[in-house]
Specification:
Radius of gyration: 19 Å
Shape: globular
Strand order of the largest sheet: 6-7-8-3-9-10
Helix content: 25-40%
Structural class: alpha/beta
Length: 269
């Protein structure tokens, strides 16, 4: 298991504004290698904006982002992906007219080393590379996420819960070192939530993956159950960070969610 003492992702004093709206205000955090680090907060707290800054969709006006000791603040998203930063989105971003397998394969394109010439030679490096890619996808990801029965189905014909699973599969096809998960449980029923939580634990703990997870999620029960550490945002400001128990009972977190001194986790029961 990866050591959880090593800082893999460091965000320092990150600030970004859109017009007159300050989305993030000097937010700092350290994500340790091999942990599940969750970001919580009410709607509009800046959680998705923070993920967009980390994977390069947004460029902050102030602050810095370091990944495995390398400054990535000004790198484009595809270069961050090459370093091992993968992402799922709050709104499903799949090619609805393509099959499950084709959508997952798109996540492997960044690992292709062959060019146009070698790609035209079927029995050359391109063929061997394609076989290796397919073996990785079919043996590891499809098995892990239990989507073998739907691998040849058109994504747009699948129920929402399975589409969420396919998006996670595509993000995993990058074979990431760290995966940014933006509300992977949103819109799922109870059984689907339990399945997705189990998959996230497998991704994090299984020796074949041991992937660091940065999770943005509103389901406090799951967050408190699976996270190693939690950070809370409110109106773009970090208001708490620590273990799940510390954060769920932090006065500022309780006030941000409820406006009164009540146990945050207890409200789900």
């Amino acid at each position: 298991m990866a050591s959880r003492d090593e800082i893999q992702l460091r965000v320092q004093n990150l600030s970004i504004a859109f017009g007159g709206v300050q989305a993030l205000m000097k937010v700092s955090l350290d994500v340790k290698k091999g942990e599940i680090f969750s970001i919580i907060g009410p709607n509009g707290a800046g959680k998705t904006v923070l993920l967009n800054c980390i994977n390069g969709l947004y460029r902050p006006q102030e602050g810095s982002i370091d990944f495995e000791g390398r400054k990535i603040t000004h790198l484009r998203p595809h270069r961050r992906a090459r370093l091992g930063i993968s992402r799922t989105f709050q709104k499903i971003e799949l090619f609805k007219g393509s099959t499950v397998l084709d959508n997952i394969r798109l996540g492997r394109h960044i690992h292709l080393k062959t060019g146009l010439l070698t790609g035209a030679i079927y029995f050359g490096p391109a063929a061997r590379e394609e076989i290796a890619n397919r073996d990785f996808i079919e043996r590891e990801i499809i098995d892990l996420l239990e989507i073998e029965p739907i691998r040849d189905k058109v994504v747009g014909m699948l129920p929402y819960g399975l589409q969420k699973r396919v998006e996670l599969a595509r993000a995993l096809a990058l074979n990431p070192k760290i995966i940014l998960l933006d509300e992977p449980l949103a819109g799922l029923n109870l059984e689907e939530v339990e399945d997705m939580a189990r998959f996230l634990l497998d991704i994090n703990e299984d020796e074949r993956w041991q992937t660091t997870c940065v999770l943005v999620e509103h389901d406090m029960g799951v967050v408190m159950d699976i996270s190693h550490r939690v950070m809370a945002l409110n109106f773009g400001e970090k208001i708490a960070e620590g273990t799940p128990a510390e954060v769920q009972n932090h006065p500022r977190v309780i006030q941000a969610y409820l406006g009164e001194a009540e146990d945050l986790y207890a409200t789900r029961r």
